[in-house]
Each structure stands twice: as structure tokens, then as C-alpha cells.
Design a protein that fits this description.
By secondary structure, the protein is mainly alpha-helical. The protein contains 21 helices and no strands. The protein has one domain. Keywords: Cell membrane, Membrane, Transmembrane, Transmembrane helix, Transport.
Length: about 450
């Protein structure tokens, strides 16, 4: 009965999302249904949902919003384009897929996925015009880099929220995400792109509009790279120094500076000075950009909050412990189980964020029961949440329409790329887990 109640609540969530209900509303209704089906006392249901929302959104809202501010600044200043131009210049025409993959990954670290997608499409089409290469062959490596950064790396919303859900360490997860993400990118990006040269992209008004570029000055390459990578460098550095034999006062100071909130505040301050001035952005333009970033990120924050409400209902009913016992008894490694849960939800609802957060709420008690590595579980869930993008995913349609493809060619390129990211992401997570156990 307990398992039926959870499946029924997830069914309500899937149906509501499929009917285009706002995901926050879908999560709240699903949480209410789960509470009623699981026998939570009526007087405790509203408080449980409210507690879950507050406990889930509280630890991550600052990191996600500040990350969106930094990404918007990098986009508006032209630093993302400067990074792309520089990497392509370094690699040259013969290694163009590698340059595009590196561009997508580096630009994807600070940029919210949809922003990075729309921002990089003009770059893809301008390179297509200069090189004469097929647009899909040029674009897939870059978009694979964006996707991997979105699914694996904090401070992106889903991995950041799942880190908090599972009690993982954000810095360690970031380092593991880089270790897993780079070989995954090599396979799903440049290597896979070699099979796509036969997919033709028709000329369209979208193509012509995308190659238009603005006249705003861009910051230099050094400043662009430093500002985009500063959060990664500081968080990873503070995490590495955590294991060094330092005096207590020094260790405390490093931990304070390396906290994601302080890292992002420092990165934004550096970006305002180094990027805003170079690009000629006024203070008002920068602040207006931050306001737009808040509007962009608000729906994601509500999804995270709603997922917390559903998770707390499972805790209040005691279903989390029963579910953990049943799931832990399945003949699957815990990391593969987390991946599978995220994969199934992703295929059903289309949203990687919804899939990741829902799977995180379901798998959290399994980590307690099995002792699985929470940091690697974040990455396994992230890989599962990117699997099998199809017609219920907005990214599928963005790619199809921008590149003017048929459904068949979109499945052949975009959907297969996302599936490769999910499959090889899991394989490299399992490999890293085995190496850590040997060590």
C-alpha cells in the first residue's frame, strides 16, 4: 500500500506537469495527495509541506541566485563570447569540435542553461558560415558541454539543491563533477559529433537572425576566463586546503572565504569591476541585468521548494524509511539506483530539474541505509536526469527549431547526445566510486 501511494503521488505529479501545470503547483498537489494516501494526520499536513519547502529552499537560495547574477554579468558583458572566440583561436580549424566542447563547458559553469543555449547559438552559426561545416556537427559539442555543466556542477540549481538534500559537500561534488564531466564530454561532444556530419541544416530566418552580432565592446580574454572560473577555483581550492595540516585559525579563515556564498559575492564584485568596465556597462545596466536574472531563476527556485514539500511528506509519514529498506534490497548498486530513478522521472516529465530533485528526495534515505557516497550520488542523479531528452523537453524543441531539423534528425543528434551524457556519466561515476574504494 505504501509503495502504491508513492507511485500514485508521482503519477499525479507527472500528469500535472504533462498538462502544463506550473511545476510548483504540481509538487504541492502531489505532496498533498501523498500525505492523504500515506495516512499523515490532517492537522500535520500543511505544516509538513511548509517545513519541507522552507528546509529545502533555505540552504540553496543564496547560492543559486548569486550564481544567476554572475552568469548574467558574464553574458551581458560579452565575456562568454570572448571565451569562445579565444578557445576557437587557440585550437584552430582542425580541432574545432574540441574548442566548441571546451567553450560549452567553461561558459556553462557560470551560465544558466537556457541563457547559455540562446547566447551560444549565434556563435555556432557564425562559425558555420566561416568554416562551411554542418551546423549540427559544430553545435553538438558545445551544447554537450552546456548540458554536462548544468546537470553535474554547482552552482547550477539542480546539483546545488540535491547537494543540500543529500547532505553532500558542495566543494567535493564540484571536484568530482569535473573529474566525471570531462571524459563524458569528450565522448558525447567531439567524438559523437564526428558521426553527425551528414545531417544538413536548412537555411532559415532563425539562422540569419542568429548571426547578427552587437557592437558592444568585449572584455579581454584574461579577465573573461578569470571571472568565469573564479568560483570553481576558489571553491575547489578551499576544499583541497581543507585536507591540509593548517593551524585552526587559518583553516577557519579559508573555510569562510571558500563558502559558496562568499565565493560568489567576491566573484560578482570582481566581475563588476573587471567585466562591467571593459564592456562599458553602466551601474544601472548591471543592476537591471541582475533583476532579469531573478526573474529567470524564480521558476527554478519554486520547483526546488515544491520538491522539498513532497520529500517532507515522505519523512512525516515514515514512508522514507520503508522505501529505503525496499530500494536497498534491489539488486542494483545505490548509485545506479539513484540514476535509474532520475532517468525514469526525466523520461516521464521532461524536466531535468524536476527529475533530479524528485529522485534526490526518494534516494536520500537509501544513502543513510547503504552508506553510499552522497557526493557521487549527486552526480549519478544528475546523469540520470539528462537521459533520453524527447518531445516533452523544452530543450529538444529549442534545438530542433533553431537548427531547422526534422524530428528524426533531432532524435538522431540531440536526444542521442543527451543519452550518451547520461550513460557515460553514470559509468564514470561508478568507476570513480570503485577507485575511491580502492584508495
Amino acid at each position: 500500500m505504501m509503495l502504491f501511494s508513492i507511485v500514485a503521488a508521482l503519477g499525479v505529479l507527472i500528469v500535472l506537469v504533462a498538462l502544463r501545470a506550473p511545476p510548483f503547483l504540481a509538487f504541492v498537489v502531489a505532496a498533498l495527495c501523498a500525505a492523504l494516501l500515506l495516512g499523515v494526520p490532517l492537522a500535520r499536513i500543511p505544516g509538513a509541506i511548509e517545513k519541507g519547502i522552507g528546509d529545502t529552499i533555505g540552504p540553496v537560495v543564496i547560492t543559486i541566485v548569486l550564481g544567476a547574477f554572475l552568469g548574467k554579468l558574464i553574458a551581458d558583458s560579452g565575456a562568454a563570447q570572448r571565451i569562445a572566440d579565444t578557445l576557437i583561436g587557440w585550437c584552430g580549424p582542425s580541432r574545432l569540435p574540441i574548442a566548441m566542447a571546451a567553450t560549452g563547458f567553461l561558459v556553462g559553469i557560470p551560465l544558466f542553461y537556457n541563457v547559455g543555449f540562446v547566447l551560444m547559438v549565434p556563435l555556432i552559426f557564425s562559425i558555420v558560415l566561416r568554416s562551411g561545416l554542418p551546423a549540427v556537427h559544430v553545435g553538438i559539442p558545445l551544447l554537450a558541454g552546456l548540458s554536462i555543466a548544468h546537470g553535474f556542477l554547482p552552482p547550477h540549481p539542480s546539483p546545488t539543491a540535491v547537494v543540500a538534500q543529500l547532505g553532500a559537500d558542495l566543494g567535493v561534488t564540484l571536484i568530482y563533477g569535473l573529474i566525471v564531466g570531462l571524459p563524458t564530454l569528450a565522448i558525447a561532444g567531439p567524438l559523437f559529433a564526428t558521426t553527425l556530419k551528414g545531417i544538413a541544416t536548412p537555411r532559415s530566418p532563425l539562422f540569419d537572425a542568429a548571426v547578427a552580432s552587437g557592437d558592444r565592446a568585449r572584455p579581454g580574454a584574461f579577465a573573461s576566463f578569470v571571472c568565469a572560473l573564479l568560483p570553481v577555483i576558489l571553491i575547489a581550492g578551499a576544499t583541497a586546503l581543507h585536507y591540509a595540516p593548517l593551524p585552526p585559525a587559518t583553516a577557519t579563515a579559508i573555510a569562510f572565504v571558500g563558502h559558496p556564498t562568499n565565493v560568489l559575492l567576491l566573484s560578482i564584485a570582481v566581475g563588476i569591476v573587471a567585466l562591467g568596465r571593459s564592456a562599458g556597462l553602466t551601474r544601472a545596466e548591471i543592476m537591471d541585468g541582475f533583476t532579469v536574472a531573478i526573474r529567470d531563476i524564480a521558476p527554478i527556485l519554486l520547483i526546488i521548494a515544491g520538491a522539498g514539500g513532497l520529500k517532507q511528506v515522505l519523512v512525516e509519514s515514515g514512508a522514507d524509511k520503508v522505501l529505503a529498506t525496499q530500494l536497498a534490497g534491489l539488486p542494483l548498486p545505490p548509485l545506479a539506483l539513484g540514476w535509474l530513478l532520475a532517468c525514469v522521472i526525466r523520461i516521464a516529465v521532461g524536466s531535468a530539474t524536476v527529475a533530479g530533485l524528485t529522485a534526490g528526495g526518494l534516494i536520500q534515505p537509501v544513502i543513510v541505509a547503504t552508506g553510499a557516497d552522497a557526493n557521487l550520488m549527486v552526480l549519478a542523479i544528475g546523469a540520470g536526469s539528462l537521459m533520453c531528452s524527447h518531445v516533452n523537453d523544452s530543450g529538444f524543441w529549442m534545438f530542433k527549431e533553431y537548427f531547422g531539423l526534422s524530428l528524426r534528425d533531432t532524435f538522431r543528434s540531440w536526444s542521442l547526445m543527451e543519452t550518451l551524457v547520461g550513460v557515460f556519466g553514470l559509468l564514470f561515476v561508478l568507476l570513480l566510486d570503485a577507485l575511491l574504494r580502492l584508495g
